[in-house]
Design brief:
2 strands, two-stranded antiparallel sheet, mainly alpha, 10 helices, ABC transporter involved in vitamin B12 uptake, BtuC, 296 residues
Length: 296
């Protein structure tokens, strides 16, 4: 097979890799925000992704997929507010290891709760009829739903960028990441900002669960399967860097897609090798920023 004949298949794998990158991006943005501002290592982030997928199945049965797309992230964000107020805020001034241990336990509780409520058997959810089918460009075919997910991820990134760079909330968040003590000195309380950040980050995890529900197997442990990849993206991009996470998600997606095309067995390990190479050259990640809460 010549390169030109193989090109449509390679392009398809790259787009599938970008779709994986879009999932990682939604999770990694939330992880990075919560850790950068509050210092909480949230290992339960994948559990909110799984909860989002399960809620999609339940809510779509009554409100349709558009209703689930709007309602589920809001419900998961509300759950995030409850978790933040009851538990996470206790760890903001503590060693990050403590939050890591707590959220690990929280992730296990969430997984077992999903298993008790919905059962251990995998569940499925159909692609919405209005997004079913494929786009055809000559010999190249690509599912409409997967293309829509990539566009949705782009819209989410644009919305997050606007929120963090063109609103007073975003300016306080950025200032809180760089100079938390200075923000307090000028009389701005970070408590409601931390709550809003947790809601936003966890809501993004819920959104990721919604959009993947029609194309993955929904089961209680699905959050554990993706959380490592999301952390890899955060590490590659660099803590505290919005665009670092975006670029890292694209890189991981493209590298996984190309690797899968030529050597499928190595697609999973390729992102870890990429992380190793980046950290050898840039220990803080591609665009990592210095944060006073972590460095003297």
């Amino acid at each position: 097979m010549s390169f030109l004949d193989d090109l449509p298949f390679l392009l398809e794998q790259i787009l599938n890799g970008l779709l994986d990158g879009a999932r990682y991006l939604l999770l990694a943005l939330g992880l990075s925000l919560i850790f950068s501002l509050g210092g909480v290592v949230n290992l339960a982030h994948g559990a909110f992704y799984a909860i989002g997928a399960y809620l999609t199945v339940e809510i779509a049965a009554y409100a349709g997929f558009p209703g689930a797309l709007i309602g589920v992230p809001l419900l998961v964000a509300a759950l995030g507010v409850v978790i933040e107020r009851l538990f996470l805020r206790r760890f903001y001034e503590q060693d990050p290891v403590l939050s890591l241990l707590f959220t690990f336990g929280l992730a296990m509780i969430a997984e077992q709760s999903l298993r008790m409520i919905f059962g251990a058997a995998p569940r499925s959810f159909s692609i919405p009829p209005f997004l079913d089918g494929v786009f055809m460009f000559g010999e190249f075919l690509y599912p409409r739903y997967r293309a829509a997910l990539i566009l949705l991820a782009i819209a989410a990134v644009a919305g997050m960028w606007f929120l963090l760079n063109r609103t007073s909330f975003g300016k306080i968040v950025k200032a809180g990441v760089a100079e938390p003590d200075m923000v307090r000195v000028v009389g701005i309380s970070l408590t409601p900002i931390l709550t809003a950040t947790a809601a936003l980050g966890i809501g993004l995890a819920g959104l990721a669960g919604v959009i993947v529900a029609p194309i993955v197997s929904i089961h209680p442990a699905m959050g554990n399967e993706i959380i490592t990849a999301a952390f890899v993206v955060v590490v590659i991009g660099g803590l505290g860097s919005f665009w670092g996470v975006v670029v890292a998600s694209l890189l991981v997606g493209v590298v996984r897609g190309i690797t899968f095309h030529f050597y499928p067995a190595a697609s999973e390990v390729s992102m870890y090798l990429l992380m190793l190479l980046v950290l050898l050259v840039r220990p803080r990640g591609l665009m990592g920023e210095r944060m006073k809460r972590l460095e003297a």
